[in-house]
Amino acid sequence: MIFQSDIDADLSRWLLQNERKAILPFKWGLFVVTVVFWLWRTRWLTPSLYPFSLFSGYFFVLCGATYLLCMGRIIPKEARCFSTGSFFIDVVYVTLLVYLDQQRLNLAGEQAISDFFYFYFILVLRGYTLSMSRYSNLTINILLVVFFLVSYRLAEMSFDFFWSGAFQFKLALLWLIILMSWFLIGLIDQQRNRLIQVRERLIKTQQLADLGQMASLMAHEINNPVAIISAHAEFLMRSAPENEKLRTGLMEVRDQAHRCRKIIDELTSYTQPSSDLNPSAIPPADFCREAVAFVFGSSETHASVEMHFADNLPDMRGEPSSLRRALINILVNARNAAGPGGLVTVNARRSASKTSAVDLIVTDNGPSMTSEEREHALEPFAAHSRGGAGLALALARRIIEEQNGRLTAEAPPEERGLMLRIQLPTAQGRGIV
Asked: Is 0.70 surpassed by the pTM of this model?
């Protein structure tokens, strides 16, 4: 599974590479163009104090950025902060440039709007590298419009310019570019999410292939010695019936040998995708009652269980036997975590996030898990503070996802224990994943 930290790390590396190979050369080109264009418009006269200070300050900023990027002084963790600062320096530079040029035009008696206005279009495109969603992109672009208005307000000392046809046309054009960027960033975000999903599937496929090879090797090399150990333990138990201490030790050997075989069987089952699935309509309440009766029906069970079902629940869609196995694994995990005197709660209700889905929620009041432990709780052999280190939950997740469902580990409202949410499509739904 790809976690948010992996996505953030990839994004930081991309931002740093983009700043060095694309943004920095572009900014140097922008600087040269603005200086040459300014000199050409002023008939190659030496710039006055304020334009000269602006060009000099931006030149030294570019020299510093070039040194930091080309000498590797910026690490990926600092890339977003550096890119944000670089972007807002560009915004201030263009804003002051528009202000000074508009002031120059006013002093010359020219009824025109600064041509440097078009650099705001470039800044809109520059904002793509900073925004990961439509709304953040729109927020950045609204700030650009504010800077644009401020530059003209300072130059004109009034808002009369706002009613001129030329200014309104350029402002409308700027908003058109912003709306187009808002639409495009949404498409880019959707494509990025699809690529992340494809990458997750490829990683899972590779992991299953590697686990499958390991499981085949373990089944061949370990099952036979374990079977011999178990058989000898059984034989010695029958040969020494009067020695209670010896029998207890031999029973422990036999049980641990059976546990080894169970782990191998679970690993083999986990790496073999289910076949010949025949999905059908499953009543949620009856489905939960059967699994709870199987897990908690024994008199040796020390944890108690409560069940709550919403009214008029629609049937779920899935293969009953494999889903029952997944739910049993989850219930056994909750029962073992709750321990003697603990409580396991099973809820079934309509999903709040999906209109055509049903949530089965299993909550226990056992030891709590940290957010990092919950993030990895559904992975194979995930070790955590609750003592689990097996394949039960990983197998349950694989079964549920194969049937267009979803299994997530969450913190309970009481902040104690663990809440596992099974989300399955309804009989009329088209799937969750």
From this structure: no
